[in-house]
């Protein structure tokens, strides 16, 4: 979900609520002008753009953490409380209904129902949309277009066993054979899912679903043995990470 789309949503909510409130308070239309109510609502709801930015930052920085949902819900509740504080402060100064009969702090009691429901709805909507967008951005491409001998092959990430850097190219070992793409290994590292593809060396990425064995050497080295018998050395800087990764996946 892009920021400009959310800004459009906030402007729509502000204008809609302004019109509804003006229509509802028909007894005060001779004292209040519609554009004043709309501007008042804009002033109340625009701060939610900052709330959107805060939730977006949390999702991007903690998307892999098991505490993400509680953190988002807690932040959302805090933002609602802060918004209520802003609502009182802003309305008690700029509300066109200030000092009119039946109003207090420039608002009527039923306003709280609207504000609460919209605030809760916004928190749910923002979290849901941002998390969905984050997942879409992390998903790998549906297919890789590979060529060999003038023929084109379409390969899903799940068909890739191993990726190995070779100068400015990357070799892809797949269920359909070996292919070469003129892209650096980092390109694949950035788009392939981390729960399936792990880097074991600066020049090697493996699909963990095709690993049959981890073999330790006498010098504390580590090798990954793939199901097709291919052996690949694990760099010392990745040994601990790979060992813990497979330990967490096994019973």
UniProtKB/TrEMBL annotation:
Gene3D superfamilies: LytTr DNA-binding domain
Residues making up the signal peptide according to the UniProt record: none
GO MF annotation: an example: DNA binding
HTH LytTR-type domain sequence ranges: 144-248
Stated name of the protein: LytTR family transcriptional regulator
PROSITE patterns: HTH_LYTTR (PS50930)
SMART domains recorded: LytTR
Keyword Transmembrane carried by entry: yes
Coiled coil: none
UniProt entry keywords in alphabetical sequence: Membrane, Transmembrane, Transmembrane helix
Transmembrane segments: 7-23, 35-55, 67-88, 108-127
Pfam family, one: LytTR
């Amino acid at each position: 979900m892009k920021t400009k789309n959310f800004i459009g949503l906030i402007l729509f909510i502000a204008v809609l609520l302004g019109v509804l409130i003006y229509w509802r308070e028909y007894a005060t239309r001779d004292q209040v002008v519609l554009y004043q109510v709309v501007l008042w609502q804009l002033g109340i709801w625009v701060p939610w753009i900052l709330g959107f930015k805060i939730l977006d930052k949390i999702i991007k920085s903690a998307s892999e953490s098991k505490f993400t949902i509680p953190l988002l819900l807690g932040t959302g509740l805090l933002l609602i409380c802060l918004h209520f504080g802003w609502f009182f402060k802003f309305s008690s100064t700029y509300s066109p209904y200030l000092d009119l009969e039946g109003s207090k702090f420039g608002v009527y009691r039923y306003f709280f129902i609207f504000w609460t429901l919209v605030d809760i709805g916004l928190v749910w909507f923002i979290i849901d949309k941002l998390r969905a967008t984050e997942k879409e951005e992390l998903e790998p491409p549906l297919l890789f277009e590979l060529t060999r001998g003038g023929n084109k092959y379409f390969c899903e990430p799940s068909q890739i066993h191993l990726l190995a850097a070779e100068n400015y190219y990357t070799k892809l070992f797949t269920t359909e054979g070996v292919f070469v793409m003129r892209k650096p290994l980092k390109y694949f590292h950035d788009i392939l899912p981390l729960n399936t593809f792990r880097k074991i060396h600066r020049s090697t990425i493996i699909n963990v679903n095709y690993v049959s064995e981890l073999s330790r050497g006498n010098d504390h080295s580590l090798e990954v043995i793939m199901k097709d018998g291919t052996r690949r050395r694990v760099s010392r800087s990745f040994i601990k990470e790979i060992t813990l990764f497979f330990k967490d996946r096994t019973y």
